Structure formats: structure tokens, C-alpha cells
Amino acid sequence: IPGYGDSPSAEMVVTAQGRRTFLDHVLQELGMQRPVLVSPSMSGRFSLPFLLAQGDQLAGFVPIAPVGTKDYTPEQYQQVQTPTLILYGDRDTRLASQALQNLKHLPEHRVAVLPDAGHACYLDKPEDFHRALLGFLRQLK
């Protein structure tokens, strides 16, 4: 993610609009049409603005305890028709519960909770994570 960790800072990603535009450019450059966007943790700063503005370009959305969910209203989430799998580990009691409280307003959502998994549930329980993800992908149109 630009501007995080050891990556160089980028003026473009200072605002939510800039992060949405950045993600849109990445998807265009990769030639992706109707991808499923998997968004763990800090990537929520990019995925959520994109989802709310351009969610119709996604075949699906898989938030994994993303940050930034409180920045949007229930009414904004209710406008999104993108099929969503809200996925998190049951040991992630802080960020996951906050994200669930906000993301549950997405009308086309379902929830998968990975037992005995923390914030990085995909690392803690990779088989369970992949099983949930593949199940979701199979049911998409």
C-alpha cells in the first residue's frame, strides 16, 4: 500500500478520493474486469472508497477486518449492491467487531467467522480461509 511501511509516500493517496482513483488505475492497468476485491486490514482505506463509489465494477468484495469502516454511514453502505463476504477471525475482537457493525449494512452480505484465528485470519487458519473464500467465489454470478 503506497505510503505505508517502507513504501514511498504518494500525494495521490492522501485523500479517500485519491485512494479510490489509485485503486481504479491499478485495476485498469491490470486489465481486470469485474474482479473480486479481497481487502484485509489497512487496505480498507483503498477498497472502501472504491466500493462505495464504484462497487458495481466488482463481482464481489471480501473485507477482512478492514480499517476505515466507521468513516461511512449505514445509508452509504445500503446503496452498495456488490455481493460481499465479511470474513474475520474470532480472536480479532477489536477491529473485526467494529468492521462487522458497519459492514453489516451492506445489503448483499454474508459473514464467515474463522474460529481460533486472529486479525490475520488468512495466516492463522489458511485452509479455513480458503474454504470460505472459494465457497463465496463459487456462488458469484
From TrEMBL:
One of its GO terms (cellular component) is cytoplasm. Keywords: Cytoplasm. InterPro entries: AB_hydrolase_fold. Its main location: cytoplasm. The keyword Cytoplasm applies. PANTHER family: PROTEIN ABHD14A, PROTEIN ABHD14B-LIKE. It is found in: Cytoplasm. It comes from the Eukaryota. This is ABHEA protein.
